[in-house]
Structure formats: structure tokens, C-alpha cells
Amino acid sequence: MKTKMRKWFDVLLGAILGMFGLGCFSCGMYGVPTSDFIFEGQVTDENKKPLPRIQVVRRSGWGDDANNRHWSEFADTLYTDANGNFYEYLGDNEYPGKIHKVIVNDTSGVYQSDSTIATVEYSGGRRWYKGKADLKLDFVLKKK
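Above: the chain's sequence. Below: its structure in C-alpha cell form.
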């Protein structure tokens, strides 16, 4: 009877802790891995003139090499400000990964789109906290 009661208690306690993102105490981790991540840059034309209202789409990915990459189905979409700058801070957020695909689009159709794949290195991480990283990318768009 005690064994059955203990199993029921363990299941119930596990479910309650899981609702709060806690669990896996025996493996030294709990919750979802997090990191501080800053994504920033500037978009200009060939004459170094800043381009406002340019769409910047970032998608996180994972994988060992170019042939084995998997991209998140979710993408962060930003727009450049009046000075052509974009900025995103992901603090205390889910771990965004090391590989990022960035696509820059001029929705007005004057400039050609551009894209790149960038890898970032996180530093200062420990256990479930993966650390922090900055990804700074500048783009120069050409007219169509």
C-alpha cells in the first residue's frame, strides 16, 4: 500500500513541478535553457545611406554542418529605424541556438534582398544558463 501511495505522490509532485518548469533535479538541470542574446546591425545602400523600414528576418537553427542544418519554424521579424539600424535583445529567453539565418528584404521593391548564415559563440554559460552572445550584422543592399 505504501509503495502504491508513494508512486501516486511522485507522479502528482512531478506534474505540479512540471507546470512550473521545474524537474530533472537528478541531472543537475531544471527549466528551459536560457541565454542573453543581442542581435543588431545596420542596413545601408551602396552609397552608405541608411535604409529605413527594411525587413530583417532572423531564424535560429542547429546542426553540425551546412548539409545537416535544421531551421526553427519560428522567425523573429524586425524593421530598421530611420537610421537603418535594427536591434533585438533576448534576455532571460529560451536559448536561441548557435546558427542563425538572416534575410533582409526591401518590401517597397526598390532594393534586392540579401541573406547570410551566421554562427555565434556563447560565453559565460553554466549548467542550464548557456551564457551570452552578440550577433552584429551589417548589410549593403543593391538597387534592382
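The longest helix spans residues 2-19.
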